[in-house]
Design brief:
The structure is a single chain. The protein has 91 residues and is an all-alpha fold. The protein has one domain. Helix content is 79%, strand content 0%. The chain has four helices and no strands. It has helices spanning 2-24, 29-43, 47-66, 76-89. Helix 1 packs across helix 2 (29-43) and helix 2 (29-43) crosses helix 3 (47-66). The longest helix is centred in the N-terminal third of the chain and has 23 residues, at 2-24. The radius of gyration is 24 Å and the shape is rod-shaped. It is a multi-pass membrane protein. InterPro entries: AI-2E-like. The chain crosses the membrane at residues 29-57.
Length: 91
């Protein structure tokens, strides 16, 4: 009986915890779920809390890096023209 209860509660915990974390964070549910399960496997009981936090920070950093806007005035065509002028002046 205790084994059945432990399986039910453990499964519900692994499903409900990511859903509750998802409500507080704007992250994909699969990322949170993998953070909870991966943290549990990697760090044990404390990994239930560390795993999602590490993945959330990593996700935010990656997202900021991917969606980074180039600085104004750095037109690639202008940079290529400047490089060609520099190369021509050194010939």
């Amino acid at each position: 009986m205790l084994l059945v209860w432990s399986c039910v509660v453990g499964t519900l915990d692994n499903v409900i915890r990511p859903v509750l974390i998802r409500m507080g964070a704007d992250l994909p549910l699969i990322l949170i779920l993998s953070g909870v399960i991966g943290g549990l496997i990697a760090f044990g009981m404390i990994g239930l809390f560390i795993g999602p936090v590490l993945l959330a920070v990593s996700w935010r950093l990656f997202s900021a890096w991917v969606h980074e806007v180039p600085a104004p005035g750095n037109d690639p065509d202008e940079l290529l023209e400047e490089l060609e002028e520099i190369e021509d002046s050194h010939k």
